[in-house]
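Session log. Operator J.P. requested a structure for one protein chain; no other inputs attached. Running the standard single-chain path with C-alpha cell output.
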Amino acid sequence: MKAAVIYYSYSGNTRAVAQALSAHLKGEYEVQAIELTALDEPASFLGQCRRAFSHTRAQIAPVDLDLSGCDLICVGTPVWAFGPVPAVNTYLDRCSGVENKEVILFATCGSGTGNERCLQYMQGLLAKKGAKGFKRFSIQQSKVKDKEFILSRLKKIF
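Structure written below.
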C-alpha cells in the first residue's frame, strides 16, 4: 500500500511532524513525502498572514499532483491566520485522484487558535473532490520536538 505525506513547513515544525508521521506509516505503507515550496511568498509575517487569511493561492514549485496511486493521503500545514498556508491551498486545488481515498489532515500551530477552522477548510476542499474517511490532528509548536507526544496523537487516530 502507498501513502503520500504532503506538507509545507516554514520554520521546520510541520516538517518534524510530517517526518514522525512518515516514520509511523512506514511499517504498513510505502511512503512518499512531498514538501511544498512557495515561489512567491512574502518576506514579512504580516504579508504571509494576510494571504492565508484570505485563502490566497501561491505559486508552488513543480510536484506530483496525481494521488490516484495512493491508498492514504496525508496533508500538513502550519496554521496562519486561522487557515492553511497558500502553498497548501494551491496543492489542494490542483491535486487529483483523491476520490474515495482515506485522508489524514494535520496542522502545527502556536496557540491552537484557528487550528480547527484550518483543518475544516482543508477537509472541505478535499471532500468536494470526493475524498472520504477523514482523520485530523494538530500539534502545538511547543510539542513538535516531543516525538512521544506526537506518537501518542498518532495512536489516537489509528
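Operator note: Residues 2-157 form a domain with the Rossmann fold fold (CATH 3.40.50.360).
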